[in-house]
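Z., the sequence and structure:
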Amino acid sequence: MSFATEIKNELCKNESDKNQLRLLCMGAVFAMNEDSGILSFRTECKRAADHIEQAMTAINIPCKKSSVDIRGKKLYSVSLQKDSVDCELPDCSDDDAFGIFLRGVFLVCGGAGDPEKGYQLEIFLHDENKCKRLLSLIEEHGMSAKLSTRRGSSFLYIKESEKISDILTFMGAMMQAMEIMNIKIYKEVRNNVNRSVNCEAANLNKTVAAANIQADDIEYIFSTRGKGYLSEELLEVAEIRLDNRELSLSDIGEMLEPPISRSGVNHRLKRISEIAAMLRIEDGIKE
């Protein structure tokens, strides 16, 4: 089931009185397409079609519900004569009234992408003037959306997760609004964990790369001059590094007796590298 269908299923509530039913139906009528005096909409969501048809029947708006199979997909439609209904916008100055009106609009022509993949809510009114009128109402009620066109049809869209959650809550789809926020929180936690893991991996790679260079220097000194060439304190660090290339400088410092700081270990390894560089020069080996 798509996320848009889940939203519509949640929006299919039982409006409690005829005024609410009228607002829902006016939102649906506003969003319907017109062709030769017939208003209609088509949807994959059976519950949305049933809900609109039942609401219209309850307030004596004559309409017809039907279904058709297209390429193996069942689509449901509701249609009515334009002259059988008042197409004027109702008074939506009250937040609750506009929420129900907008619910009717979304049931007819709303869509939403899977929040796991991205955040996008769309309202396909097709007509630019209708889009502008609805956008004005949305903004009057403290929300926002953007107007765009696709293949010559106008629509409104929202891409920010918080704004999508706000408008879903406004329409009455609180559970799906919470789902978006839960997914956002999960994504943020997952991204933070990934960043931490990547950072640790990068630091480990740097440690291993530096350790390999240090080990090469130590092996050169041992193979060309012997272990006795190094002082006792340098030899102690050299042998630990050679046997434990994955260890951090702090870890090496803790293994010494007595333990020394990270900077102390770094100083000794630098001294070993300087000695190796000097010996290679003496031996005529170019870096």
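The CA atoms of residues 10 and 173 lie 6 Å apart. The mean pLDDT is 89.

Let me know what you think.
H.
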